[in-house]
Amino acid sequence: MSPAAMMVLSSVMMAAAAALLQASVLNRRPLSESDAGRRPLVSDDDLQRLEARLLRGGHRLWRSQTQERRRAASLALMLRQAGYVSSRAQVSVLLALGLLALGTGASGALYGLSDGSALSALVHGATGLTVGVGLAWLWIKRRIAARRERLEEEVELLIQVTRMLWETGMTLEGVLRSLIVNLGEVVPASSLELRVALARIEAGQERGEVLEALADLQPSPASEAYFNLLAQVAVAGGGARSALQSLSELLNDRRRTTLQERVTKMSGKMSLVMMVFLFPVLLIIVAGPAVVNLGGLLESLSGGTP
Fold first, then answer.
1. Around Cβ 103, how many Cβ atoms within 10 Å?
2. Same structural domain for residues 101 and 157?
3. Which backbone phi and psi does 209 adopt, to 5 degrees?
4. Cα(9)–Cα(3) distance, rounded to whole angstroms?
């Protein structure tokens, strides 16, 4: 088999594996599903054991690297803010994005081989790899931005329901459990964070430390303020009704200020658009006849002179 064919085959295989892993992570489905009415060749338990075996080594390596290296820790924080909580999900996403980046690099090298030069193949391969890494980075950034907006939209409802539940005399664990059960489908992004907090608290960790650590991982300032408030209430005790009401008013004021800033920026942009596109048209309409009459007058004067 020629080198070009081998590179094509490797690129196709990497792209297929990356698409499979990415679909598994995003859709939260198993890596393979049998059709209805057919007997699967491999059982779901075997698939789960195989997946766990493949990811166990990467999971341990990723956790050790995030604890020792600053760049790996910052990347893990970005993936955490994008909604991938466990190390296993983060390893799966990194593997999928890495395979996609390698696929773009192999495609670039294949394009460079068409010139028959090894240097051209190396340059195009490096360029394709850089493009793949850049696209993966932009994808993670967009996931973080989308999740930040989702958390900003969900936190107001979360605060109001938390205040009502707290007034009934529930404990912190009861409030978190009730929020997960009743608002799990309404606020899915916030529900994921609440599940993490409840699981760690039920595992025996201190409530204030759990909530403070969870607040530091939030991509949304509103969600961060919410978990910091819960941490303060868990440590100091007392009623949280007035604190939640003050937080709700503060977030509303902040949202109103943000909207006013957007409107101000939009008005400036609209003024620029009017200056560029509308004023020349108005100038032509208003001053056009005068310019035409002035041209005709000058032409008649020039024609009447001996």
1. 23
2. no
3. -65, -40
4. 10
